[in-house]
Amino acid sequence: MIATSVRCLRVVVASGLLLSRATVGRAAPLTIDTAYRSLTPGELVVVTVKVDGAPSTVRVNAFRRVIPTFKTDEGWWRALVGIDLDQRPGRYLVEVEADVGSTVLRQSRALVVTPHKFPTRTLRVNPAFVNPSPAELTRIRADQQFLAEAYARPAPTRLWSASFVRPVPGEANSSFGTRSVFNGEPRSPHGGTDFLSPSGTPIKSPNAGRVVCARDLYFTGNTIIIDHGLGMFSMLAHLSRLDVKEGDTVRESQIVGLVGATGRVTGPHLHWALTVNGARVDPLSALALLGN
Ligand SMILES: [Zn+2]
């Protein structure tokens, strides 16, 4: 699968969509290629690094974050860089360092993030819906604490090797990034993609990993979070049934539960949110780049 992905990247480069200055002209000891759907907030960027020699370590920095790398083949390394939903447009650098013997090879590549206008919906609703009761607030805080801990210690190795898969066959709507204003109060943007699947539809794990959450939460209802390793997490929300428990290891495409309408929803659907080293990205961008 890895060889296939590398081949795909080369095809994209050859088509001229992604022309890296580092790949033009004489071969450099360290070259950086990037693949993406678009360089806008909420998108995944796959960074592929080719290093001559046998580097002991390859480090990648982007958006002021240390991005873990993984070796895909002899001399080939990869890093998954998320452009957060709220990332300001502008010019950013992907900086790469490779230790080859006592030498440190350095190279950087500019990413110019252009604006993306996410839809805004303004709603007038029952104030009780916007302002939770003290008891609900206590529960919400406990959930937040639990989630912060679940995301705090990602597995230090990559737990997946197959392609990412669509968790349900249903259509995805364009809800990712939507800003909601309830009774004039802005809410945090919608950090996932909603798949319109009927209640009871089996949900496949988007890829292999370890289950770090399989419980009922106030906003997201029955929720599964899968740690894919190296800072990548999938959240699957609003399930009617959980078929895994915390601590379980799951394979790609394993059925983890059923679509439902639990938590704060208006109808059954699957909410899939993907976090990549803290950046909230549209899971559809991961399917486009890391799917089959
Ligand atoms: Zn959603």
Overview of the molecule:
This protein has 292 residues and is α+β, with helices and mostly antiparallel strands. It contains four helices and 20 strands. The strands form four sheets. Strands 12, 13, 14, 15, 16, 17, 18, 19 and 20 form a nine-stranded antiparallel sheet that branches. Strands 1-2-6-5 form a four-stranded antiparallel sheet, covered by helices on one side. Zinc ion binds next to loops.
- Helical stretch tally: 4
- Which molecules are bound besides the chains? zinc ion
Report mean pLDDT, rounded to a whole number: 89
Biggest sheet character: 9 strands, antiparallel
Strand residue content: 35-45%
**What's the total number of strands?**
20
Describe the global form: globular
Cα-based radius of gyration, to the nearest Å: 20 Å
End-to-end Cα distance: 9 Å
Taking pLDDT < 50 over at least 5 consecutive residues as the criterion, the unreliable ranges are 1-25
Tell me the helix content. Answer: 10-25%
Would you tell me the structural class of the helices and strands?
alpha+beta
SSE pattern, N- to C-terminal: HEEEEEEEEEHHEEEEEEEEEEEH
Outline the secondary-structure elements:
Elements lengths: L1 H13 L15 E7 L7 E8 L5 E6 L2 E3 L1 E5 L2 E7 L7 E11 L2 E11 L6 E4 L3 H4 L3 H19 L26 E4 L2 E2 L6 E3 L6 E3 L4 E9 L3 E9 L2 E11 L6 E2 L4 E5 L10 E7 L2 E3 L1 H8 L2
Parallel strand pairs: 9-10
Antiparallel strand pairs: 1-2, 2-6, 3-4, 3-7, 5-6, 7-8, 10-11, 12-19, 13-18, 14-15, 14-17, 15-16, 16-18, 16-19, 19-20
The protein binds zinc ion.
